[in-house]
Amino acid sequence: MNPREIIESVRIAMAALRTHKVRAALTTLGILIGVTTVIGLVSLVQGLNQSFAGQVASLGSNVLYVEKYPWFAGEDWYKYRNRKNITLEQADRLAGMLTTAETAAPVVYTRRMIKFGDARAEAILIRGTTPEYQDVADVFTASGRFFSAVDNHRHNQVCILGQAVVDAIFPDADPLYQRVYIGSYRFLVIGIKEKKGNLLGFNQDEDVIIPIRTFEKFFGSHRSVEIMVEAADAGNLDETKEEARWAMRIIRRNRPGEPDDFSINQQDMLTDMYQKVTGTIYLVMIGIGAVSLIVGGIGIMNIMLVSVTERTREIGIRKALGARRRNILWQFLVEAVTLSCFGGLLGILIGFGLGKLIAAVSPLPASVSLWSVFLGLGFSSTVGIFFGLYPAAKAARLNPIEALHYE
Amino acid sequence: MDTLIDLKDITKIYQVGTVEVPALRGITLSIEFNEYVSIMGQSGSGKSTLMNILGCLDTPTEGTYLFKDREIGGLDDNALADIRNREIGFVFQTFNLLPRATALHNVELPLIYNGTPAKERRQAAREALESVGLADRAQHRPNELSGGQRQRVAIARALVNKPSVILADEPTGNLDSKTGEEIMDIFEEIHRGGNTIILVTHEEYIAHHTQRSIRLLDGRVAVDELRRDDNVAREASRESPSPAS
Fold first, then answer.
1. Are residues A250 and A288 part of one domain?
2. Domain hosting residue A131, numbered range
3. Closest partner residue to A320 among B78, B84, B100, by Cβ?
4. Cα–Cα distance between A220 and A85 in angstroms, integer?
5. Do A321 and B113 touch (CB under 8 A)?
6. Which of A29, A181, A342, B230 has the fewest CB atoms within 10 Å, counting from its CB?
7. What is the value of ipTM here, to two decimals?
8. CB proximity list for A361: less than 8 A, separation 6 or greater
9. Terminal CA-to-CA distance of chain B, rounded, Å?
10. Pairwise CA distance, residues A289 & B192, whole Å
11. A69 in a domain, yes or no?
């Protein structure tokens, strides 16, 4: 089959389609809907992915979280319930033992009411930590200062406010060096945190940071400490993880053969979890798309069979004039593929439009990638070939004499 | 090589259910280059079957068919299609034009299947239409043409590939007698131009235009005679074929 013959097949197919415009449009509708579904959903999921990846990156890919519980323990959570809490003292020992870590910071959390004058904000996240937290978590002050090691050592009642907390309780006044109530204790505001934005729907600016020793003095030391460890070499996170693990086993007196009684979490786990969830979405999406593409393909096959019967005489004429089987095969195959690709192209355009529209009117992001265009086109042409082959082969096999005398 | 077509003991048997129906029962005949032959016979005499075999649309059950000294019997579909395309020009009773295509495109069709570039194709099709006097109807569709004009388009299509033989199956069957005469004049001209023409008909006056008449009866050649009328002069200069019994 040389290129010229293929071009002729395309010409003949196009002419045939032009004579049945409405029929062609209706036939291609099934493919159009299938591809629209796939492209629309892909662009939404892609948008979510990108937004998620951006947010997760802000956690820092080189940070380990040494904690009592693993993330996503799922149904196994009870197995970890009897683990002993990680203490501040253990956190200090770990920081001292690590050689491949840039820095480490212990963190504990609680929620308390914050009050300034009559203004109050309920259930604000209170984070107790050390000055190292700044480097580990990339949290810095926009104005004022972070607390120092001395503040921590002396249990000073100082705090750094997140921007959302400032907005809630200091609508007009300058918060710096004011005294606010955290629960029932008075703290001096010494700094305002830089805005961090949302992480997975959680407002990172709605928090208050205080020294961890102050935290334990006023709010109790019964909470398990989370130790954030920043690896010196981001490319060698696993080495730091192993080191932290063996240090923790020593600190926590885990005997050989005994499992760890702590967990080391990292950003990857979030990504993995996310991919599991979106993987399911993808599967569902492919299922829906496949079903409508198959339905569309059957529509194409049906119409092509009708078309072959209608044009039996034309096939006979073409064969009498010297058309080989493959000429006829190509003519009808190209017609089927053109039908389905036309639907595919329209589906891609509409799918994109739909994605953009949803992105514009809802908080869901949408992103369109080149591969999904090829996916749509690939799918639709495959459907065209698959469902067009049988009618085309039927046409190609026709006996020229019978076809010529077909009424 | 003077012999264009050489048939030896051609039989064709159709299988209808479990019954074998013989359509041709041993046809032996040869047709020279530039002969103008009519094949006559009543319906059921096997002339359509013979026509299909001569036109390489069908293959015989038994016997040998040499076309330009080439055996047709064992050829596959594609090889037969190539021979139809290059060597044979068909003219049908019902014209068999593509209804949605213009006259020009209809004439182009055979050239599409031998890979002639579009430009040359259009040129050749125009010339063929001109030769049948339809140059001004190139962009008309068959339903915008009269029966005679349609048949002339079909003749142009048969000529466009410069085939070795024109096979015409009742070419005047769907035309009134005046138009039929016009079509016969065109065939006359084509023959004078050096072409071989085989004409299937059951009308005596149409057969009168030809030089040689073959009559079929029950799948056999009953009469094979040369006509001695206005073609005598040309006949004399030509080696006469041996009449079969």
1. no
2. 84-261
3. B84
4. 13
5. yes
6. B230
7. 0.89
8. none
9. 24
10. 66
11. no
Whether A330 maps to a domain, the answer reads yes
Q: What per-residue confidence (pLDDT) applies to B6?
A: 93
* Contact between B185 and B163 (Cβ < 8 Å): no
Buried-exposed string B30-65: b where 16+ CB fall within 10 A, e elsewhere: bbbbbbbbbbbbeeebbbbbbbbbbbbbbbbbebeb
Whole-prediction pTM value? 0.71
Exposed e or buried b per residue across A326-352, where buried means at least 16 C-beta atoms within 10 angstroms of its C-beta: bbbbbbbbbbbbbbbbbbbbbbbbbbb
Which residue is associated with the tokens 């459907």? Answer: A383
Task: Output the six-digit token pair for B212.
Answer: 């040689």
Measured between its terminal Cα atoms, the distance across chain A in Å is: 31
Structural domain containing residue B216: 35-45+77-236
- Is A153 within a domain? yes
Nearest residue of chain B to residue A402 (CA atoms): B57
Amino acid identity of B213?
Answer: S
- How far is Cα of residue B74 from the mean position of the Cα atoms in its chain? 22
Decide: B128 and B107 in contact? Cβ < 8 Å: yes
Give the integer Cα–Cα distance in Å for B227 and B219: 22
Domain count along chain A: 2
> Using the beta-carbon criterion (under 8 Å), do B85 and A317 form an inter-chain contact?
no
The count of domains in chain B is: 1
* CB atoms closer than 10 angstroms to residue A228: 22
Contact at 8 Å (CB) between A206 and A111? no
List the single best residue of B95, B98, B166, B167 to mutate versus A (max A Cβ within 10 A): B98
Q: Where are the alpha helices (DSSP H) in A59-146?
A: 88-97, 133-137
A320 contacts B113? CB cut-off 8 A: no
Burial (CB count <10 Å: 0-12, 13-18, 19+), residue A100: middle
The residue among A62, A378, A41 whose CA lies nearest residue A240 is: A62
Question: How does pLDDT run across A294-331, given as a tens digit for each residue?
Answer: 888 999 999 999 999 999 999 999 999 999 998 999 99
Question: Residue A51: pLDDT above 90?
Answer: no
- Structure tokens that stand for B123 in this block: 């040129």
With CA atoms as reference, report the closest residue to A115 among A170, A45, A197, A67: A170
What distance in Å separates the CA atoms of residue A94 and residue A247, rounded to the nearest whole number? 6
Last residue of a domain, one of A219, A240, A261: A261
Which amino acid does the sequence have at B68?
Answer: K
Q: Averaged over A196-201, what is the pLDDT?
A: 76
| Host H or E run for residue A166 | helix A163-169
A113 domain-assigned? yes
Cβ-based neighbour number of residue B103 at 10 Å: 28
Pair A101, A245 in one domain: yes
- Model confidence at B229, in pLDDT bands (50, 70, 90)? low
A21 neighbourhood in chain B, CB within 8 Å: none
Q: Could you tell me if A55 and A199 are in contact, meaning their C-beta atoms sit under 8 angstroms apart? A: yes
Q: What residue in B sits closest to A11 (Cα-Cα)?
A: B112
DSSP B10: E
Q: How far apart are CA B46 and CA A207, in angstroms?
A: 100
Distance from CA of A286 to the nearest CA of B (A): 41
Does B6 fall in a domain?
A: no
Q: Which of A321, A330, A334, A335 is best to mutate for the B interface (most B CBs within 10 A)?
A: A321
Q: How far apart (Å, rounded) are the C-alpha atoms in residues B224 and B226?
A: 7
